[in-house]
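Record pair follows.
FIRST:
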Amino acid sequence: MDNIEIEEYIQNLNSEAPQYLQDYAISQLINLEGSKLHLLLQPISKNYWRNAAIVLKKIGYPRVKSIIPELLEWIQDMNWPGAQEIVDLLITVDDEVVPYVKKVLKSRDGIWIIWLLSEVVSKWNKDLKKQIKDDLYKLSVTLDNNLIIEGVDIQSMKLLYESKFIYKPEVLNIIKRKTELYEELVENLDEFRESIKEM
């Protein structure tokens, strides 16, 4: 398949194109060689993304191995077209995905991390989850507001607990420590508010 053909098929991934053109483009693009797969990563505009994701899902793992980091980027927002198809693809990837997931977990991007944990990691088997156990623990005890606001700490604790990597007493201890910290913060804020009133 030459570049002109590829470009034409990608143009026909537009969700507003006639359905028969979309279907034909999908059927042809699943034969795309590995070095050209990057052309299907959120091409042109959002009207093209869902069909591009369908193609990538049909291509499947291990053929998509070279673009795993970019596939993870696609789920930075699960509202993006094609994000669900990319999740369906990512949960079929084996240990190969773990180093890239670890990198995302260190990113401090709370929204991306919560989507990754709730949509992908939650569907992993215990052996895969075990490889990021320490990362999940760090996230569960984090005091980083970017992560706490999105519920990353709670989702991490939940995954650890459900996988039996930590047990009820430890979970309750983490919750207690966090509660005490936030109670202290609220007390300090209340004191400050009162001092302002007196000024």
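SECOND:
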Amino acid sequence: MTLTPPDLHVPALEAAIAPGLDAVEALLHRSVAGSRDLVDDLTAHLAQAGGKRIRPLLTLVCAQLGSPELALSDQVIAAATAMELTHIASLYHDDVMDSAPTRRGVPSAQHLWGNNRAILAGDILFARASRLIATLGSESVAHHSRTFERLCLGQLNETFGPRPGDDPVDFYVQVLADKTGSLLSAAAHFGAYHAHAPREYAQVVADFGEKVGVAFQIADDVLDLVSSGETSGKTPGTDLREGVDTLPVLLLRRHASEGTLDAEGRAILSDLEGDLDSDEALASVVERLRTHGVVAETRGMARGWALAAVESLDPLPEGEPRTALISFARLMVERVA
């Protein structure tokens, strides 16, 4: 499969990292195989289905902040591949928890092989990511372990929900930071760190990665409503049907609790409590929610997090890596323009 990385509008840098992306793809496909045929079919399922590879891309861009001789080193390639393996492993588990029928335009692993096998496949991929990280030294092992912990805590906290007295919107954003921001943060950190960039640069890009990860997930909440099924690969409003309160709905509830929600918003909330099993009922709620002000408010929050990510890059020197990271942040949210 040929993957086309996002256009970062920095041609020279993109040409420099292209061999690294090819090396990551080759190592990724070796890493998801190596067992008997039936197991390989399962563990390779999502890697072969494609994906944006934004985490390895971020690793390779951040490696450009370090030594040119190390920017495509075996260590950087291993780190970038481990980030994608960790991400793919988490998708196997997410799809079990969400009972998702599809992923990346193909049937999900749990749909094809059942929950138990999908969970174990995710565990195998986590183990193989850890094996790659183990070649990078104890500090990287510890960093990856903390990231893995945050991924799991984010997923668990999402299932428990906020405690009484917690602000549901702030709680939700923290879940996004843990589930998505933490891995993008680690991907950026590993690129700078293993290319021997200054330590402060590694911290800067780690902060950038976390913020841009939150922006990316908030943008996805808008896409769940405004994109076509052909574009997103799932029926618009699927989260609504499953009773998942994404950010637009949480903002509706916040405005309702503050006494500032308009009549249309109150009607939407009422309908969300009803039966959305029919496609007609779901489509009606989605269409009305698309035009409500909370969607524009959600877009604004995505852009705000992307802007905060860009502002966090101020300590970096001017140059192609910084320009590419700014483009990267914009790409995460321009899908909801």
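COMMENT: Residues 199-226 form the longest helix (28 residues).
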